[in-house]
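Q: Got a minute? One more chain.
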Amino acid sequence: MSATVTTPPPPATRGTSGRRRAAPDVPPYGPRGSRWTSRAAVHGVLLLAALYSVLPLVWLVTSATKSVGDFSATSAFELADFNLWGNLRDLFAREDGVFLHWIRNSLLYAGVGAVLGALICTACGYAVARLDFPGRRALFAVTLAGVLVPPTALALPLYLLASNLHLVNTFWAVFLPLLSNPFGVYLARTFADAAVPGEVLEAARLDGAGEFRIFLTVALPMMMPGFVTIVLFQFVSIWNNFFLPLVMLTDPELFPMTLGIYQWNTRAPQFPDYNPLVITGSLLAVVPLIIAFVVLQRQWRSGLAAGSVK
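A: Always. Here it is, folded:
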């Protein structure tokens, strides 16, 4: 009967000092060159995305400073004689200052509509998340289904409804549909689940507070980052809204900036003097969005972080 002989492993290699040599370091993500290659690729993609986002704004700035002749004679990013103040003067004087009406309408639609719409969405999301009533799950399922419906598909039903209510070509035909946003309700429910403890609500009820007072004084301050996030989303969506005013309105004094600038742009091929006005008006239309993002960025970023953790 033969015995199996096990060969012992070779002794560890020792250096001149007698210490065991450490194994060579191996990069955890493959060869060292691949890491730098992937980083360069990511930076290249980010650079292309940044250029894609910034170049249209640069073109707006350079083109808004050109006169009618320079706009046609120079290239897109080429600078010419500075004529921004003249373009602004012509912009506000054209058609008896109708552009001022467009600015006022856009601020009313987007500013007031964003705040009221966000308040309604926050209240609905809080109710679905923290109040117990029959049909709560079914109501939230219908709300999620509403997120999947594109706004353009609702334009014709909204027009027929406004026509039956004799609201076509009025301020309310555009303003009232902007107060509802299924996606805002979904975000508000998420924030209410994450930020409003049920124990705090029970304590407020034991103190005799009603549900409406609990929402305004207890739940809404806790949901403020989410509320600001919904306000910002609503503001951007309403400010850029084009199709609903196009369907509902025919009076130029009720137009928002998007629709009014579009109407001028349709005249530009026949009347080239509208080109600087369209470009300058488009540049002014971007400014409120930039201001909104800068002012609300702290609350907006914290709100997005809370939603992502949830």
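A: The chain has a mean pLDDT of 82.
Q: Perfect, thanks.
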